[in-house]
Amino acid sequence: MEYKIFLPVEKLKFSDLHDWSKKENVCKTTTVKLSEPAVRDISDTKILKQENLKKGTVVKCNDEEIALFRHGQDVFAVRDKCPHGGGPLHLGEIEELVDKSVCVRCPWHKWKFDLKTGQVRFPKGHKTEQAELFPVKTTEEGKILIGFEGINPHFFNAMDDIHF
Length: 164
Ligand code: FES
Hints:
It comes from Sinanodonta woodiana. With 164 residues, the chain is mainly β.
């Protein structure tokens, strides 16, 4: 798949994400101001929810709701809708399997999705379902960019609401 465009995640930096690779990280409650009117820019990106840094963060980027997870220096972006039954993956726990692969475990029925391939690692035998992943780049300043095949056409509908 070809990713033609990388859009920045606004108001969220790499260092804001909970690092799931650090076992000593304790659950901290941090609230990001959600009541502020979202500033719409070309990326139409805003933080939707970040109630608890122990959990992944869900952002809206290119009109998609995407869960972000940090594991060490890696940031994984996955559509926030579990392919099994639509569960909110950003509320899932991150697990390192014995082969060192990093998985998100859906909070609803505990299916585990490999965050590098999207494949179901648990339960066995589900080869057709896959979590939808997006490539991520981070800049030296800690900006996070998510890759897409193109601009979502709904993005331009949303632009009609903007008054310049
Ligand atoms: S909805 Fe995610 S495992 Fe069922």
